[in-house]
Amino acid sequence: MNKTTRWILIISSFAIVVSILFNTYIFFQRFKEEERTKMNIWARAQAEFLQTEDLDRDLGDLTLEVLRNNRSTPMIYVGRSGELRLNNISEKRAKDSTYLYQKIDQFAQENAPIEVCYKKECYGTLYYGNSEVINNLKYYPVALILIIVLFAAVVYFFYRTTRISDQNKLWAGMAKETAHQIGTPISSLLGWNEILKDEDGINPEITTEIEKDITRLQTITERFSKIGSIPSLERLNLVDETRTTLEYLQVRTSKQVHFSFESEAPVIYCMINAQLYSWTIENLVKNAIDAMKGKGSLKVRIDTDGKTARILVTDTGKGIPKNDYNRIFEPGFTTKKRGWGLGLSLVKRIIEDYHDGKVKVLHSATDKGTTMQIILKTA
């Protein structure tokens, strides 16, 4: 749907709403005019009834029929001597004079009172309110607007969801294509590393570290290839998977960051995807290092109660304000001058959507540090 079409639909919808509201208003006014005409007829019939009563004459059937026929409009007739006659007023409140005089004031605001007169002699005043039909009709435009707003909201969210879905498909496609493109140079690097191993005078530690980096690139490639698809989970030792990722990161991190790792048990099995879990730990560790500005202590601990495993990542960084505990997991939210704000949103998605776990800020204090917590079910 192009921009011009959207604007045409919006303007057309607005014009239809305005037209319906205007016609409802006209109908409402005509209904009130007809009701006033009915009340004027009733007032004349009442005046004739009172005049006939004074002269002791027979009253016509038509006059009686008019007086009896009002079954919907609430009204109060106030005679010149102050007597009150009620019609369509609750019998329970008929003896409450305070209530009745409040009703008279209300009716006077809703509709102009009608003098009950016959041949220039006035017998009293008729006060009448809006009938139930008119009262219901008043809320019709409001209900209509609410329905239209709700419909517009549904259309907007459907359009927005569709657009986000298309964007996600695009990003997933780009990620898979990136993974495919990286595969070729990785294969080449593997070959060159094998050639280096055969060369004399090459330190074996160098080729070993190159192998680790190539393996890491393969892991990253697998991560990108899994974006947009449901990953497979395996029963793996969470302790070993966490330790392997930490050891790799520790070698490639400044010596000013002190790493420590503890586990309550040497073996804790969970259903995880190795590549995505490693990505999660990597993101949490890198965020912690950034928060410490490359200098401090980073501790990772794993606890278990038999049913769940709890991974705690603690740093000595600048901390997180309490009102940002949930916001840090939103895509695009970042406190860094550079960065896309995607790391923790990926962590949340990997843990909660793919591993049926939980991730949150356990606690944090300004300039003292933060502890992030991951909870996974044991297997």
Could you explain how this protein is built, in words?
This protein has 379 residues and is α+β, with helices and mostly antiparallel strands. The protein has two domains: 3-138, no CATH class; 230-377, Heat Shock Protein 90, CATH 3.30.565. It is built from nine helices and eleven strands. The strands form three sheets. It has a five-stranded mixed sheet. It has a four-stranded antiparallel sheet with strand order 2-1-4-3. A two-stranded antiparallel sheet has the order 5-7. α1 runs antiparallel to α5, α7 (238-251) packs across α8 (274-291) and α8 runs antiparallel to α9. The longest helix has 59 residues, at 140-198. The protein is elongated and about 130 Å long. 20% of the residues are buried. The mean pLDDT is 81.
Structure, briefly:
The chain is an alpha+beta fold and 379 residues long.
Features:
Heat Shock Protein 90, 379 residues, four-stranded antiparallel beta sheet, 19% strand, 2 domains, 9 helices, alpha+beta
Number of domains: 2
Overall form: elongated
**Strands side by side in the biggest sheet:** 6-8-9-11-10
SSE pattern: HHEEHEEHHHEHEEHEEHEE
CATH class of the largest domain: Alpha Beta
CATH architectural category of the largest domain:
2-Layer Sandwich
Q: Count all strands and give the number.
A: 11
CATH topology group of the largest domain? Heat Shock Protein 90
Radius of gyration: 40 Å
Strand percentage lies at 15-25%
Q: How many angstroms does the end-to-end distance come to?
A: 49 Å
Structural class: alpha+beta
Low-confidence stretches: none
* CATH superfamily heading of the largest domain: Histidine kinase-like ATPase, C-terminal domain
Fraction in helix = 55-70%
Largest beta-sheet details = 5 strands, mixed
The tally of helices reads 9
Mean pLDDT: 81
